[in-house]
Structure prediction request, 148 residues.
Amino acid sequence: MATKKPQSARTSHSRSASRTGPGAGKRITARDLKSFRRRLEDELTVLTGRRAGLEAASATSPEGAGAGGYGEEASDAGSFTSERERDLSLAGNLRDLIEKIQGALGRIDDGSYGRCEVCGQPIEAERLDALPYTTLCLADARRRARVR
Ligand SMILES: [Zn+2]
Prediction:
């Protein structure tokens, strides 16, 4: 299950620690950052590979299929949601995710990683663990999900 970490290394190596807000739980340590970075980089590699595969696939797909041809006067074809469309949204999701991950890596570099872009509070460690590229704290993510 969870990886065991030796708890021995406890050197307080924090450089000029910024104010800890009240209720700021676990903070992200340099070591955490490192492992987040690695996870993000791994994921980025996987995703860019997948995207390249998708793009190659759609580039080589025969043009005749579906697109073009005579008018689509068929009854409003709601069932037309084809695989192609699914691929498109998949590619869109991938691009989205890739951008998020790149953004997260950039924030690791500039030191703003792990802070909510809305309220500026540190993002919950557990949440970051589950979604390393998130830019929102739990409360703001919920709020955003609710608003439409
Ligand atoms: Zn927030």
In short: Residues 116, 118-119, 121, 136-137, 139-140 surround zinc ion (CB under 6 Å). The chain has a mean pLDDT of 78.
